[in-house]
Design brief:
Length: 347
């Protein structure tokens, strides 16, 4: 009986095709890995900044609920030009602020409708200095420019233009025909002296630079941050600033996001739907160029005014530096599209 034996051939090497396939796979994986590492490092800067700002906002929101007083953050912007003459408006510092209770000690009188003198029949007398070093010192004076005076029996607030003395104020608008009576001063948020300035990581800033490229029509120009609640700080010891634009209060503009004890955002400039803060690496190119890559791997941090909800979103596809088209256009070209999408809750 004859047995047929099947002899198996042993392969001592890979075929050329197999080697090429393996090499291609290695190159593809290496390219993907390198891209992930590079993007991850750039994006991590914005992520760390978003975490820092979110932490400050949540802390303010909790303190507002705990203290029963509106509490929030003040964004300190710095404007200038870089070494190439390109303008920028950045912030890398935040302050924790809280709105003190209303002030209503004594009564007031006036002869011209704008200069008010305050007094009481007995001690203590109205004192607008408090623990400040000088009258009208920002964040330190009991009453300061930018607070609002409301005469008793009325609902019209009058902005305080200047603190004249310890018991005298100058209003930006007349209270005529009223000449005396009780009052309430609605005081603006002050920095909490017990809290240090919050410093963002060195690799990230809140960017409020003009986002559109030079030559964009004026009605289509916008800044990276959207719907910032702005107010103006006027310090009595600060030299008078240049004349402001028409209908603009004098002083240094700052952005403040202040939470009521209920969690909603309150204060000046909170009439829109939400505020959007643009966070990015400042070491990237500043000047927007139409169609260029997004500079600084940015993220958008959004705070809803009505609910106080905080979300962080990627920037939607956008030809950098180009105006945002009207809603409903095709194709979309809005970097804030994810923020505006009601179905999106952020990262």
């Amino acid at each position: 009986m004859t047995h047929a034996h099947c002899l198996t051939r042993r392969r001592n090497a890979f075929t050329l095709i197999e080697l090429l396939v393996v090499m291609v796979l290695i190159l593809v994986l290496a390219a993907l890995g390198l891209g992930y590492i590079v993007f991850g490092q750039d994006n991590q800067h914005s992520v760390s900044g978003a975490q820092a700002v979110t932490g400050a906002l949540l802390n303010a929101k909790q303190r507002a609920r705990r203290d029963g007083l509106p509490t929030g953050i003040r964004i300190l912007f710095t404007s200038g030009t870089d070494v190439k003459g390109r303008p920028f408006t950045f912030s890398s510092q935040l302050e924790l602020v809280q709105q003190p209770q209303d002030y209503n000690l004594g009564t007031w009188t006036t002869t011209d409708g704008t200069t008010l003198t305050f007094s009481t029949p007995s001690a203590p007398s109205p004192d607008f200095l408090g623990g400040a070093d000088y009258i009208g010192e920002i964040d330190q004076s009991t009453v300061q420019a930018g607070d609002y005076f409301v005469a008793a029996g009325t609902t019209t607030p009058h902005r305080i233009a200047a603190v004249v003395s310890q018991n005298s104020l100058l209003l930006a608008s007349s209270v005529s025909p009223l000449t005396s009576g009780a009052y309430t001063i609605i005081r603006a948020p002050r920095r909490l002296p017990s809290e240090d300035i919050i410093q963002l990581p060195s690799t990230v800033v809140i960017d409020n630079t003009v986002a559109t490229a030079p030559g964009t029509p004026a009605n289509q120009v916008f800044t990276y941050c959207q719907n910032l609640p702005l107010r103006y700080l006027v310090d009595s010891m600060t030299p008078p600033p240049p004349p402001p634009p028409p209908n603009t209060p004098p002083g240094k503009p700052v952005a403040e996001i202040v939470f009521a004890p209920s969690g909603a955002v309150v204060g000046q400039g909170t009439g829109n739907d939400k505020v959007s803060l643009w966070l990015r690496d400042p070491n990237w190119k500043l000047t927007p160029v139409a169609g260029a890559p997004l500079p600084g791997a940015p993220l958008i941090l959004s705070v809803q005014f009505r609910t106080g909800f905080i979300g962080v979103y990627p920037v939607a596809p956008w030809a950098v530096g180009t105006p945002i088209p009207p809603p409903g256009t095709n194709p979309p070209n809005d970097p804030y599209a994810y923020v505006k999408d009601p179905r999106s809750s952020g990262l």
